[in-house]
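Why do we care about 3D structure at all? Because function follows from shape, and shape follows, mostly, from sequence. That is the central idea of this module. The next example makes it concrete: a single protein chain, its amino acid sequence, and then its structure expressed as tokens.
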Amino acid sequence: MQAFDYARPATTAEAVALLTRHGDQARILAGGTDFVVRLRHGIETPGVVVDIKGLTDLPADVTEGGGSVRIGATAVMADLCRHPVLRARFPALVEAMSVVGSIQIRNRATLAGNVCHASPAADTAPALLVHDARLVIAGTGGERRMPLSEFVLGPGRTALGTAEIVTAAELPVPARPLGTAFARMTRRRGVDLATISVCCSVDADGVTRLGCGAAAPVPFLVTDISGILADVNAPGPARDVALDRLIAQARPISDVRASREYRLAMLRVLSRRALLAAAQRLAASQNGKARTGGADRGDRA
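And the structure:
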């Protein structure tokens, strides 16, 4: 490992100033679960490491307001998986975070770091795409917001500027009933990168969305508004045609984890599984509301 300077700023403004001063020689440290490994192997050779874990104006919390949920950039995944707001509002995201690495890794890894690493196989990306996540970015020009769909440019590449920091992720609260589910396949149980991953959402209007990971150079989102995929009573062949049309954007590669052909086949399998689970969860939530509504009407009567 090459020697480097270490800085621990107290505020976001100080961190941005350090990044501005050192330019391409500076690297941000949050959870460090990917970055430290790259340091050890000599893939990263920074002149200065800027540790943002102690920023006093960047709390590791989850807040809800204004129709969205905000997740602080320094919040670790183990804490996020237990958070009642996320478990209630975004269960598929919790499912995705719960399989990132090991529990030791999740006690250090941050959601923002998982996104900024820009891996095509990032477990959280499909769920974040399905929920139209936006990233809050601080820099010399102030604060800006960017959809995740525009943030990841390619493997290891993002739209983040040299002197910018992701300070939070914002997820709009679903405006109508929504069922979601996450599924992934790996070579082995335990710590492993996804061979393929899918997050599916189905809403009360019959709109189906699929966020796909490890299926192209960047995670991607596709949408079906025909209602065929959301209709469990639709003919099987028609649903297969609609699903194949939906995932036609996939451009997987062959590597040590799987061949391109295997990934394409498993993308169809996992998409069907996630679609079924999402539709069942939507139906369960609607049935629960119907039962609650009936009881309320009985009470009023």
